[in-house]
Amino acid sequence: MTGLGELRSAMPVDATVGNVSDYRHSVWVGSVDIHNLSPDRDLRLEGGSRFGLARLLIWEDASVRGFVELAVVEGCVAARDLERAIAELPMTPRYLTNGTPMPISVIVCTRDRPDDLARSLAYLASIEYQNFEIVVVDSSSRTRATRDVVESLNLNKIRYLRLDLPGLARARNAGAEVAEYDCLAFTDDDTIVDKRWLAALNDGFAAASDVGCVTGLVASGQLVSESQHYFDRRVTWARNIKQTIFRLDEPPEGVPLFPFQFGAYGTGANFAIKRSLLRTLGGFDNALGVGSPTGSGEDTDLFIRVVLSQHAIVYQPNAVVWHKHRIDADALATQLENYGVGLGAVLAKLVCNPKARRLMGPLAIGGTLHALKMVRVSDRAGEMPGGSKHSLKELRGIMRGPWALRRARRADAARGKMS
């Protein structure tokens, strides 16, 4: 290694996670640039002595090459094994367009998670980018701990906005309205961003003149519990390192259900959009997302509306954030059920859209089979004994989605009459 020392993990396993020894199949997670490696020195991992396996995201300068998984022996990954694994990675193109840096407003919506928020903001504040601000939207937290976290940082580029009504979509709309800049980047309070995150999002917008939205890689930041492993296998945006441009008139290869293969676009924990386009589209749908009866879906709904409006979405793998998945089975079950309800709600909206309905017709059978495949993640060595229960909950959630959307619409209408 060239001056690397002990490699830090992407998202340290701390007291909020518990003792790693309580879990099976624990995996150390981190990233490293090939220029910081030496063929004659093993790679020592921070806290690696507790793990038997490591997953490394391999960088080459500002481009990701891919993931490798290797054995950990006495806290180290063998240099010879690492060199061999990197050599087997495909030589992916460097998706660098060197676009003129735009000023960017980063919006983080949060509710009652001050410890996660403090860690996320610490990394956001140290991003390597010329001109950006951070807007923290406090979505009706029950204490003032969120405000205290923001004020304790004492940085001019971080601002605080309090909302009394809950709802992620509502919070994101509010953050967009008070943001100083037209380019809006969104992430969650349980993520850690890579220092090159904003530069990579900026380059995504420069990839083509019709780009309206840029998404990125949301890598698993911790893999110490059964629930985290299950979610890592369940989602499609945790390991995708291929840049993809989504245009309605140019379906991308390998996405047979486009434009309705929603997971291919990315997720709300990592994306950017121009405020001018967001306003044209009517903003985020307040009837969708965490804090509403639908539980999720505000990001999926926005992505499909971007594509249907004849704008392109660029999935930019170099725009990396690390996500802390739910630790325990109960929290995971709630999350997956909400995913199902949100998906059902989004599908209900699309059925009411004539343009989307015409496009959905030929894909109906394939879409049904794809949905069944996605929610039936196979258990590995008994790693997630309740996996089938999660699948059933998610399917039931999809069926409840249209009614949840109707309930959310009524609640919004009632608020409007009272205001």
Which of globular, elongated, flat, extended, rod-shaped describes the shape? globular
- The CATH class assignment of the largest domain is Alpha Beta
How far apart, in Å, are the first and last alpha carbons?
62 Å
Helix % is 25-40%
Gross CATH architecture of the largest domain: Alpha-Beta Complex
Outline the low-pLDDT stretches. 377-385
Count the DSSP helices.
Answer: 12
Task: From the alpha carbons, calculate the radius of gyration and give it in angstroms.
Answer: 21 Å
N-to-C order of helices and strands: EEEEEHEHEHEHEEHEHEEHHEHHHH
Biggest β-sheet: count, sense, barrel?
A: 9 strands, mixed
Using the coordinates shown, work out and report the CATH topology of the largest domain.
Spore Coat Polysaccharide Biosynthesis Protein SpsA, Chain A
Tally the beta strands: 14
Mean pLDDT: 88
Question: In percent, how much strand structure appears in the residues?
Answer: 15-25%
How many distinct folded domains?
A: 3
Q: CATH homologous superfamily of the largest domain?
A: Spore Coat Polysaccharide Biosynthesis Protein SpsA, Chain A
SS class: alpha/beta
